[in-house]
Amino acid sequence: GNSVTQMEGPVTLSEEAFLTINCTYTATGYPSLFWYVQYPGEGLQLLLKATKADDKGSNKGFEATYRKETTSFHLEKGSVQVSDSAVYFCAPYSTLTFGKGTMLLVSP
Amino acid sequence: GAVVSQHPSWVICKSGTSVKIECRSLDFQATTMFWYRQFPKQSLMLMATSNEGSKATYEQGVEKDKFLINHASLTLSTLTVTSAHPEDSSFYICSARESPPSGSSYEQYFGPGTRLTVT
After folding, report:
1. CB-based contact, B41 to chain A, within 8 Å
2. Is pLDDT of B31 > 90?
3. SS3 state of residue B87
4. For A66-77, what is the HEC assignment?
5. Averaged over A66-75, what is the pLDDT?
6. The dihedral of CA A43, A82, A33, A20: what is its sign?
7. Four-CA torsion B70, B73, B75, B79, nearest 10 degrees
8. Are B43 and A49 an interchain contact pair (Cβ–Cβ within 8 Å)?
9. Nearest-CA distance from B6 to chain A in Å?
């Protein structure tokens, strides 16, 4: 069946550290892939997306590359900030399935 | 970008009463809207998919008589929690998809969520 697997959280980092949040998926075909971010007490916001293999989505310093061969869409940021503290969800469109979310906590 | 609003943002009700939550797409038409439920520190659980002018499609395990969904127009969907009980307390989030889909991304736009507390 369709599913999404994200790395367990929370991920705790110091400001300016490098971030990687792993996401792998199973889906029928090659769906568009999304990363959403949820700040405390709020709904989800689209962070970035990629619509086909080898596409790289980027926004606010975050990047993710659609890897068809490994069915992965890992989220990366070179230097995190305290304001990046939130829960991050990986989602392939075709399934409307969200991973369990990964909480990121960035300390000053 | 496209904006989806929810009302109310939070509500407290007594056990046995019904609560209606509205989800509106403010600057686009949404043929399809989705309702999710989120428990603390957990992922979103898709409850149902509603298409304008037709009956909602509920996910397995979701009581359709308890969670009434109406999608009467291209900009409004409502979720009514009937005879609410404390176990219905949760964070309810709606999302909407443009119609027709823009490009090929089929992006969903999420509302800010509604915190329901049943006492």
Report:
1. yes
2. no
3. helix
4. CECCCCECCEEE
5. 92
6. negative
7. -10
8. no
9. 10
